[in-house]
């Protein structure tokens, strides 16, 4: 059980003490350091976070594959970390990156957030900033 002293240390202290969830993961929001665009949301386990800090490149944990991966390993669209922050209770990570190749999304787009919900619409999503930077079939050998 945490105490108010523990909470104060977590919120005001200068130690990195991420609060991983029951699966051993912490959510990571990744933004473009130059534009501020949200590029993607992924997860990190302890090893991914440590490798990100040590290498200066973004590492994540794939829940679907159950494996660690370095962003850009297959596509060449590596993310160089400019800054890494944690939120007040250290249960989320935010990294600002320089995105090599211009695409963060496995679908070949600049950002994973290429659809928008239009208020008052018919419930369909509108495509925004959806131009592909690369063809995922050529890069990964399969459709996204």
Descriptive notes:
This protein has a single domain (4-107), classed as Roll (Ubiquitin-like (UB roll)), CATH 3.10.20. The protein starts with a helix and ends with a helix. The relative contact order is 0.17. By secondary structure, it is α+β, with helices and mostly antiparallel strands. It has helices at residues 4-12, 46-55, 136-140, and strands at 26-32, 38-44, 59-62, 67-70, 79-86, 92-99, 115-117, 125-127. The chain is built from three helices and eight strands, in the order αββαββββββα. It is globular and about 50 Å long. The strands form three sheets. It has a four-stranded mixed beta sheet, with helices on one face. The mean pLDDT is 92. A hairpin with a 4-residue loop joins β3 and β4.
In brief, what are we looking at here?
By secondary structure, the protein is of the alpha+beta class.
Produce the secondary structure layout.
Layout: H1 4-12, E1 26-32, E2 38-44, H2 46-55, E3 59-62, E4 67-70, E5 79-86, E6 92-99, E7 115-117, E8 125-127, H3 136-140
From the spread of the alpha carbons, the general shape counts as globular
Assign the CATH topology. Answer: Ubiquitin-like (UB roll)
Say how many strands there are.
8
Largest sheet: 4 strands, mixed
Number of domains: 1
Radius of gyration: 17 Å
Name the poorly predicted regions: none
Instruction: State the separation between the terminal residues, measured CA to CA.
Output: 44 Å
Q: Superfamily at the CATH H level?
A: Phosphoribosyl-AMP cyclohydrolase
| The CATH class | Alpha Beta
Which structural class fits the helix and strand makeup? alpha+beta
Order of helices and strands: HEEHEEEEEEH
Q: Order of strands across the biggest sheet? A: 2-1-6-5
CATH architecture: Roll
Helix content class: 10-25%
Number of helices, where a helix is a run of at least 4 consecutive DSSP H or I residues: 3
Strand content: 25-35%
Mean pLDDT: 92
